[in-house]
Amino acid sequence: MKFPRRVRLFTGQLDVAPIASLFFLLLTLLLLQTHLVPPPGVRIDLPRVALPNLPATSNPWLAVAVDQVGRTYFENQVVTPGELRGNLANRVRKAGEPVSLLIQADRAAAQEVVMQLYALAREAGVEEVVVATRPPLVGPGSDSTRP
User: Fold this and answer.
1) Nearest to 102 by CA among 131, 139, 140, 68
2) I need a labelling partner for 6 at 20 to 30 A (CA). Which of 15, 75, 108, 140 fits?
3) For 3-42, what is each residue's pLDDT tens digit?
4) Domains with residue ranges and CATH for the chain
5) pLDDT-derived band of residue 64, with 50, 70 and 90 as boundaries?
6) Strand order of the sheet with strand 72-74?
7) pTM as predicted
8) Phi and psi at residue 44, in whole multiples of 5°?
């Protein structure tokens, strides 16, 4: 039994408007997708300070972050001061050379927490402790406290 064919090959002119509209729709969805998912991590708002160019260190460095409420993060994990002291001491021992510590403290974090981290790092054998800042939005001499 032979069935009749109703399908014919397209021989007309191809219209670009529907293809262009699909392209722009996909482009719009792709651009919006990046804003729909929040980036992972903890937001740290570093203080804005105009500092002169400081000499760089050649030592290997470790980073510790402190958020607004004073939680301490080391290697993307929340740590207590005791755990941090042990982790830093282990890292200093394994490095076999002087190690620097970079403290990334939020501008709203208590100064006491930052100073405790400094003392804890020195106890663990860290040679140099540096506090991270961001450059001001405008030049020196103007009000750099505004975000």
Assistant:
1) 131
2) 15
3) 777 887 877 788 899 999 999 999 998 888 777 667 777 7
4) 43-147 (3.30.420.270)
5) very high
6) 77-79, 72-74, 61-66, 100-105, 128-131
7) 0.64
8) -120, 120
